[in-house]
Automatic annotation (TrEMBL):
Transmembrane regions: none
Top-level taxon: Bacteria
Organism encoding this protein: Dactylosporangium cerinum
Domain F5/8 type C: from-to ranges: 501-658
Entry keyword set: Glycosidase, Hydrolase, Signal
Keyword Coiled coil: no
Gene3D superfamilies found in the cross-reference section: Galactose-binding domain-like, Glycosyl hydrolase domain, family 43
The protein's name in its UniProt record: Family 43 glycosylhydrolase
Keyword Transcription: no
Family membership: Belongs to the glycosyl hydrolase 43 family.
Length: 661
């Protein structure tokens, strides 16, 4: 069968509106380590960037990376695997990327039926800005309709995006669903005219360029064929008065293949013959050519082809070079690439509260072997005496483990090997570990002493698949080292200069303490109820500080929400909700159906935890753990409330305290 797959990416970068005056900023992206090995790119929370076969857009002084997510375990032509949706990240320097969440809700039955592993899947989110309509326009490639694309719009580059009418195109329009049209690119010319460059599979992999309507949401029927075969993934861009179209040559699915380019004096041609720029695309498939303020950045997806787990795919990015006659130079594969950004600024990592020890995020590689008899250990030395409040270990799953991941803390010897019994141990269920490398954070609450060496030990009883690690053999954390066991922990041997990616926190700081809270409604009348009591540090419900209570629509079930502003972007991994604890009312008012959400801007929200039919809790803390996220805002949305309180049989949402860690 022809290997169809929207895997390549072009990205047209459009600066929207006037840009503030700023000095240029030189940034450096890293593709490979000094030995030529691929390295993982992490977001500002320390999780691997999970946006593939997508697009890169410059807008309003920031840069946005769009792509297909694989973290939930989607596998191409792997029946039963879910569709993970499309994600967007933002950055000011092309290095520090903040996870801005999903472009739209892909968990619905509609999108799962269109895009899950029982289908050919959905790929290649490409976004451009339409200055005439003041809308960001998103095109994605699917195989559930004959034309092969769905179109969305949004008022912001991060969404949420709302689906528009099914587009019409000159090629393969109005025919039954199937392998018709494939990889595409959306391009906006200097005069504001939009174009779609797309792959026609029914002619064996030709590429078509078609003019779009004024809204960029459908074709006009004016088009040109490039007369090719066995190609895909066009990337259309303009340099000076010339037009260029880079493409995958030949086409293939999740592989290493070449990149070629054609030239023209108009998007509608005539187009020149193709010129090969690289036979291997630096270890992957060509993904985009983004006009970043006059620098043309070429990118390719370095697919993992493992197990399969394309969530492990890495990236290659570097500027294109041009000869005096305008032709594109052959693509080299530098380990690092410098890019000058007119509107850029340095970014930073976001660290969790009370960070004590940290292995950093640069230069890490991926490996997977934890399970069965194999265990891994990373040692660290506590810098201060206190409570080990959080331990983060960067991991992923591959091959469908049938048991959870055990994370334990031991003391360790001077050779970095764990000693004695576990001081703390917990098992993280397999479904809680993603397929993309990200921080799994546990909260030991363990007393530790300054200067004492400890070890984080990971293991699993799984008999299928494995749990992975991110490792660096240049000892980026000199205060400790990694050790390996192949006999189920009976003995460990240190592995020289190796660091496994981790973080530890010592302390009990709650960034929600005294945070500014807002709510859908709030009872402020008497008796200790008030919105400010939600984050005043008083866990118990007392007449002086009962907590927060909603007060809307008391006679009918309805939705209520409460949100806290942490005052700045933080790295968080747990939200704790304290129910009412006053005599006779313990647990009352705690929602039955609710979500815990986060946001970096108060506009786009990511669901961290969702519960339906949650039993009325006792007067004890309810912890909701998740992979590390960057957030300024945390919100609890109750969609199903209780009216079971005999003292007050009305529909209220009530919490004694909200904590964040």
């Amino acid at each position: 069968m022809r290997k169809v797959l929207a895997l390549l990416v072009f990205a047209t970068a459009i600066l929207v509106g006037a840009q503030p005056a700023a000095a240029s900023y030189a940034t450096t992206v890293t593709n490979f380590d000094a030995a030529g090995n691929q390295v993982t790119r992490f977001d500002t929370a320390g999780n691997a960037v999970d946006a593939h076969d997508g697009d890169l857009l410059a807008a309003g002084g920031s840069y946005y990376l769009y792509g297909t997510s694989y973290d939930c375990g989607f596998g191409w032509q792997q029946g039963g695997t879910p569709f993970c949706g499309f994600k967007v990240y933002s950055s000011t320097d092309l290095v520090h990327w903040t996870d801005r969440g999903a472009l739209f809700d892909a968990t619905t039955s509609t999108w799962q039926s269109r895009c899950n592993g029982n289908t050919f899947g959905c790929y290649r989110p490409h976004v451009v800005y339409n200055a005439a309509t003041a809308r960001y326009v998103l095109w994605i490639n699917t195989y559930d309709i004959g034309v092969g694309y769905h179109v969305f719009t949004s008022t912001t580059p991060t969404g949420p995006f709302t689906e528009q009418a099914i587009p019409t195109l000159a090629v393969n329009n109005g025919i039954p669903p199937g392998v018709n049209n494939g990889d595409h690119d959306v391009f906006v010319d200097n005069d504001g005219t939009g174009y779609l460059a797309y792959t026609d599979w029914r002619t064996g992999g030709d590429i078509v360029v078609e003019r779009l309507n004024s809204a960029y949401t459908s074709g006009t029927g004016t088009y040109v064929r490039l007369g090719q075969s066995a190609t895909e993934a066009p990337a259309l861009f303009r340099r000076g008065s010339g037009y260029y179209l880079a493409y995958s040559d030949p086409n293939c699915g999740y592989c290493t293949t070449g990149t070629s380019v054609k030239r023209a004096s108009s998007p509608l041609g005539p187009w020149s013959a193709g010129t090969k720029l690289t036979t291997g695309s630096c270890g992957g498939q060509p993904s985009f050519v983004a006009d970043i303020e006059g620098t043309y950045v070429y990118g390719s997806d370095l697919w993992s082809n493992g197990a399969p787990n394309e969530a492990l795919a890495n990236f290659f990015w570097a500027p294109l070079g041009f000869a005096g006659d305008g032709s594109v130079n052959a693509i080299g594969c530098p380990a690092t690439a410098s890019i000058t950004l007119t509107s850029g600024a340095a970014g930073t990592q976001v660290h969790p509260a009370d960070l004590d020890q940290d292995g950093g995020v640069s230069g890490y590689r991926t490996y997977c072997d934890v399970g069965g008899n194999v265990q891994r250990s990373q040692s660290f030395v506590a810098s201060r005496t206190g409570t080990l409040s959080a331990v983060s270990y960067t991991t992923f799953q591959r091959g469908y483990p049938n048991a959870g991941l055990r994370i334990a803390v031991h003391t360790a010897d001077s050779a970095f090997r764990p000693t004695g019994g576990a001081l703390f141990s917990t098992v993280v269920p397999a479904p809680a570990v993603g397929w993309s490398p990200r921080n799994i954070t546990v909260h030991p609450g363990l007393s530790v002493s300054a200067g004492t060496r400890y070890a984080i030990v990971v293991s699993s009883s799984t008999t299928t698949g494995c749990y992975g690690l991110q490792y660096h053999d240049g000892a980026p954390y000199p205060g400790g080292g990694e050790a390996y066991s192949s006999n189920n922990g009976a003995s460990f041997g240190a592995e020289s200069n190796r660091t496994v990616k981790f973080q530890t926190s010592i302390g009990t700081t709650n960034p929600a303490l005294t945070a500014t809270a807002t709510a859908s409604s709030s009872f402020e009348g008497c008796c200790g109820w008030r919105l400010t009591a939600l984050t005043d540090g008083q866990d118990a419900s007392t007449p002086a500080s009962m907590g927060w209570s909603s007060t809307n629509s008391l006679n009918v079930n309805h939705t209520e929400w409460v949100s806290v502003d942490l005052g700045g972007v933080k790295a968080i991994s747990r939200v704790t909700l304290l129910p009412r604890s006053d005599a006779g009312n313990a647990g009352e008012g705690f929602p039955a159906d609710f979500t815990v959400q986060s946001s970096v801007d108060g506009a786009t929200w990511t669901v961290l935890a969702a519960r339906t039919g949650y039993p009325k809790p006792a007067a004890t803390a309810q912890h909701f753990d998740f992979g590390t996220q960057t957030a300024r805002y945390v919100r609890v949305v109750g969609t199903g409330l209780r009216n079971t309180n005999p003292n007050d049989p009305l529909y209220r949402m009530q919490l004694a305290e909200l904590k964040v860690a």
